[in-house]
Design a protein that fits this description.
By secondary structure, the chain is mainly α. 74% of the residues lie in helices and 0% in strands. It starts with a helix and ends in a 6-residue tail after the last helix.
């Protein structure tokens, strides 16, 4: 399929592209909507369950172990995604990537209702195999399909759909559990709704356009093909990973995604069921707001690209440090006193607010990561590789974080201390990459979407 995509691109002359009317169902916005619904049905609802803390279970340890297995397998499947794209194309990879989420939800359902544990682990394994493919392919699509000038807003729009899944799940959970002001697990009915929605994912993914069918407003073709054989592609992906710029981002990626296990475990340990349901709902709302604000800022082309990148990085990292200080104080105190907070309790706001702020920080880091990958990529093939490596690196860190948070002492306090340390270690290496944005030219205009990082060519007017 990928080879056919390539022929389709090269057979289309530039004159034909410039005169052909743009069809709404070929636009980047249409494809971002399809991609967004897939993200809602797959990782969005997975995130909705996790935002309850421990996938809605009473204790976080089994689910944290399962999530660690998921992310371990995602490292491998992310790494191999670019080779898979050669044979099935980016659309086929997206379809394959949506398949494994429903079995994991089914495992949580059986565990919640009947205490069955084996399907949680098997479902986590199936989810890990397919989710790595999904994460890598969705990232490549989100970066490559939109026009460069609209990339920030389009990525924010796509991520919004993922957050809608969290809001939907949170609203359902809150409606079903609003009277449960004690510790415990959420009602099992919600899992049946999640499973049904996740089963729709593969069918929606079939509605995505192949790259050669996409019609952009700038009339530039979308190129997302892999030409090398699998072994050459694996070698090329490994070489890309060893690139200095990507290596400098490894700890920054780590501090960004390690936090997910920390704040989900935090809300599972110290909050009532209905407070956890409220957190699930509000986390989605907050994530949508901050994601779109950052996307709008990154697409302010009247402001120099260098300034946009540096201000975004500075605000994200300074606020993230503040949230870690707050959470460190809280968990140190709670590990001694062992409280359980409900929204009617005194001190709930102080306890609950860091969870919401860390969710916001996670989303800001997440969105900014795609921006960075789009800036340092030099070709369509490298976009696929970098997207796969980004998601694979995320998976490695999350496997570590969920694995460590399956250990009680690390779940209660250690995870917070570790991620606070990662934040400090990541500052300088990440800055060495961010400071080059808007200063050096990375992408070849003739080969890839003319994403420009040269201040001289933008003349103080961004990248437009």
């Amino acid at each position: 399929m990928a080879d056919q995509d390539a022929r389709g691109v090269h057979d289309t002359s530039s004159s034909e592209r410039s005169t052909e009317p743009i069809k709404w169902y070929r636009t980047p916005f249409y494809n971002a909507t399809v991609l967004g619904f897939c993200s809602l049905a797959a990782p969005g609802l997975w995130g909705a369950m996790n935002s309850l803390g421990a996938g809605g279970a009473q204790e976080p340890y089994l689910v944290n172990t399962a999530n660690a297995l998921t992310f371990c397998l995602m490292i491998i499947s992310c790494w191999l995604t670019s080779s898979l794209v050669k044979y099935v194309g980016i659309k086929g990879a997206l379809v394959a990537g949506t398949i494994g989420f429903a079995p994991y939800s089914a495992g949580l359902y059986l565990n919640n209702r009947f205490g069955v544990e084996w399907l949680v682990i098997l479902g986590a394994a199936l989810c890990g195999i397919s989710a790595g493919i999904f994460w890598a392919s969705e990232a490549a699509i989100a970066i490559a399909y939109p026009e460069p000038k609209n990339r920030g807003k389009m990525i924010a729009y796509w991520i919004t759909w993922t957050c809608v899944g969290r809001i939907l799940g949170g609203a359902i959970n809150l409606g079903l559990n609003h009277k449960q002001n004690t510790a415990g697990k959420v009602g099992y009915t919600v899992y049946l709704i999640f499973i049904a929605l996740q089963c729709l994912g593969p069918f929606v993914a079939l509605l995505l356009n192949r790259p050669d069918r996409v019609q952009r407003s700038d009339r530039q073709p979308v190129r997302l093909e892999i030409y090398d054989n699998p072994w050459q592609e694996i070698r090329a992906t490994t070489k890309t990973f060893l690139n200095k710029e990507f290596l400098l981002l490894v700890f920054w990626i780590g501090q960004a995604v390690y936090s997910e296990a920390v704040y989900y475990t935090y809300i599972a340990l110290w909050f009532s069921v209905r407070a956890r349901s409220l957190g699930s709902f509000l986390s989605g709302v907050v994530a949508i707001v901050v994601t779109n604000l950052l996307g709008a800022w990154l697409d302010q082309h009247s402001i120099a690209l260098k300034k946009r990148a540096r201000w975004a990085f500075g605000v994200i990292m300074v606020t993230q440090g503040a949230w870690w200080i707050w959470l460190t104080i809280n968990v140190t105190q709670y590990s001694r006193s062992g409280p359980l907070y409900d929204w009617a309790d005194e001190g709930f706001g102080r306890a609950f607010a860091p969870f919401i702020f860390l969710v916001a920080g996670f989303q800001l880091n997440y969105n900014f990561a795609f921006f960075l990958i789009g800036q340092i990529s030099k070709s369509p093939q490298e976009t696929i590789r970098l997207a796969a490596l980004l998601r694979g690196t995320e998976s490695a860190w999350q496997a570590l974080s969920y694995g460590l948070n399956a250990i009680p002492v690390l779940a209660s306090v250690g995870g917070t201390y570790i991620d606070f340390g990662l934040w400090a270690v990541a500052l300088l290496p990440a800055w060495l990459v961010v400071k080059t944005i808007g200063v050096r030219k990375y992408n070849d205009e003739s080969s890839f979407g003319y994403v420009e990082r040269n201040e001289e060519t933008i003349g103080g007017k961004g990248t437009d």
